[in-house]
Amino acid sequence: DTAVSQTPKYLVTQMGNDKSIKCEQNLGHDTMYWYKQDSKKFLKIMFSYNNKELIINETVPNRFSPKSPDKAHLNLHINSLELGDSAVYFCASSSQPGTSGVEQFFGPGTRLTVL
Amino acid sequence: AQSVTQLGSHVSVSEGALVLLRCNYSSSVPPYLFWYVQYPNQGLQLLLKYTSAATLVKGINGFEAEFKKSETSFHLTKPSAHMSDAAEYFCAVSDRPSNTGKLIFGQGTTLQVKP
Fold it and tell me: Cα(A74)–Cα(A93) distance, rounded to whole angstroms?
């Protein structure tokens, strides 16, 4: 069974459209994350939810809105897509973060291309 | 604020040669440090982590890293490279003061293994 899954794997769309990326984890973790990997492979955190509560919001444009219906799911909705949104988006999960330096488990990524 | 710097965006070694990937960190508190590997078109996988226990950390696939506080370094090594080690490697530091689980990644190092 896949621990952290994302759909779709590839997403090609036009500027101005609205799209969603779904993420699910079956590890029983409390915390989920969204990362963006740009064309130079630089990874940066966007959001994090802990038990459905937003705990990290890294100065991401308001066009990006995470939604966590339950602690196993964290979806990413993007409004009015722009060319600069083209990237690979990774979902990750971990057990309760704290002082133990817990491992984050990553999904396979969603490659978003905005034309 | 925490940060990591990976020296060398691209490292090329021959199969069977020593692998050395460099990572230096900056942290106001004792850091938690991680090395992740990303194989082509896949998500990230944890190789190893340092969380203030033994300074020499052994990970998967024969990799190890040594935490050196005096040098603020956490370099990744493997005695003998295999073709299957060709991938992107990321050093990361945990944002400990906030304890949100946020990871701050370095720029990544592409490892090429020549036959």
Answer: 10
Measured from the Cβ of residue B55, the count of other Cβ atoms closer than 10 Å reads 12
Neighbours of A113 (CB within 10 A): 14
Over residues A53-70, mean pLDDT: 89
Q: Which two tokens stand for residue A114?
A: 């905005």
Q: Show which of residues 48-107 on chain B sit within 8 Å of chain A, judged by CB atoms.
A: 49-51, 88, 90, 94, 96, 99-105, 107
pLDDT tens sequence across B26-75 = 988 888 999 999 999 889 999 999 987 789 999 999 999 999 999 999 99
CB contact under 8 A, B100 and A108: no
Instruction: List, in order, residues 6 or more apart from B22 with CB less than 8 Å away.
Output: B6, B7, B8, B73, B75, B109
Closest CA to B49 of B88, B40, B37: B37
Smallest Cβ distance to B44: which of A42, A97, A106? A106
CB contact under 8 A, A42 and B32: no
- What is the nearest CA distance from A42 to chain B, expressed in angstroms? 5
Mean pLDDT for the stretch of residues A8-27: 97
Tokens standing for A24?
A: 């699910």
